[in-house]
Amino acid sequence: MLHWLTLMADSLPSLLWAALVFTVPLTLASFALGLIVGLVAAVVRLFGPAPLAAVVRFYVWIIRGTPLLVQLFLIFYGLPSAGIVLDAFPAALIGFTLNVGAYTSEIIRAVIGSVPKGQWEAAYSIGMSWSQAMRRTILPQAARVAVPPLSNSFISLVKDTSLAAAITVPELFQAAQRIVATSYEPLILYVEAALIYLVLSSVLSAMQVRLEKRLNQYGGFLEAKS
Amino acid sequence: MIRLSNIEKRFGDLTVLKGVSVTVAEGRVTALIGPSGGGKSTLLRCINLLEIPTSGTVRIGEEELSFQPGGKPGWKDIQRLRGQTGMVFQNFQLFPHRTAVENVMEGLVTVQKWPAEKARDRAMALLRKVGMDHKADAWPATLSGGQQQRVAIARALAPSPRVLLCDEPTSALDPELSGEVVEVLGTLAAEGTTMVMATHDLRLASRIAHEVVFLDGGQIVESGPSQTLFTHPTRERTQRFIATLTQQGQRGEGA
């Protein structure tokens, strides 16, 4: 028992370090970039010309229809055969960004569509252009509805970054694997890694609750009340 | 002056407006009445181009725009015409994520690039006019329907439009709440605000409108001064429609 605690205490700094330097930045960067990709993809599908919308549909189809692990392997191990050689971290960043982009584009498409058409008309009626209406009227309302499903994607992503271990990114899970290789204590180390992931996603859940509270202050859509 | 000439609107195979021409003089209030599906809302929405007419000409003041089947008007032209109008919707359509005063400021700040302070002053003055200045910082969801509609009227008036378009402004309200909206619109009419309203509300139309246009089947059946048209409609179709409106009104009062 004491032996286990010592092992945990000894390994904790290197696990936390790996989380801090790789897991967290990889999660934050690929979610931020993925959201931008998702927003653009959603807008193209909703409002863009048909051929461009078809390209986006194809992208979403490919990403959602193939395993994330396979996508990562293709980018890191496959692309060099086509002359594109990427370091492990950028390869993981690209893979996760594309993945997040595809899934969030579907969420964003749905929430933009959920804002009543009358809100567009009200914005137009006071002279707003399409982009003004989108920025000032539609997106702020869509954002509120989007928080729970987007938080889902975010929390999934934190855990999915463990797949980056398979393409040699020395993130949290890989750090645990390395220690297991020398200590032969898989139970302790993997429980410890799991606990750190649990803490990370709990922090995100708590942030989600606070964000929802803040966005809920105005009391929601008006349709219900009239 | 607003002049709609030969406005035709088709949705696919369905022709909703069959060459409608209406002229509204400056400072006058015109009510579009008629059965649902008769084309009054569509005609109203053709004035600020929320619906693009299939053909015809829309003129507001000095701005004029003609439409041809298949031709799409440019964004600049739409904005030029739309900028002359303000609109009040049946379901208010306030921006739920902005307070009452922010709703009224929105067009001034975002579209006309007014400094926030100046926009707030004008918005407060308009809220005072519709009797809503005491709720300036309230979220729309906390206001009654009548209050929301009064804020929406202030929002529509903020950019000083040449004409105020009202699409069934009282239909979503019970008689008591619609009373406060009728009152506000009546005050505006008395001040010489040019208005075009599509409505089922006999009280609203008879109290405020100078002219009435009766639309059915996408055409004007009859039009004229509201006193004459409500009391002595000449066409049989108009008589029938006004009779049903009056009955509904009485039933509404009794309930």
Task: Describe what you observe in this structure.
The complex is a heterodimer of chains A (226) and B (255). With 226 residues, chain A is mainly alpha-helical. Chain A has 8 helices and no strands. Chain A has helices spanning 2-47, 50-65, 68-78, 88-114, 117-125, 130-160, 172-183, 186-215. In chain A, α1 runs antiparallel to α7 and α2 (50-65) crosses α4. The radius of gyration of chain A is 21 Å and the shape is flat. The model of chain B has no long low-confidence stretch (mean pLDDT 91). In chain B, β9 (211-216) and β10 (219-225) form a beta hairpin. In chain B, α5 (145-157) packs parallel to α6 and α6 (175-190) packs parallel to α7 (202-208). Chain B is built from 9 helices and 10 strands. The radius of gyration of chain B is 18 Å and the shape is globular. At the A-B interface, α5 and α6 of A face α2, β6, α3 and α5 of B.
Write a concise keyword list for the protein shown above.
heterodimer; A: 226 residues; mainly alpha; B: 255 residues; alpha/beta; six-stranded mixed sheet
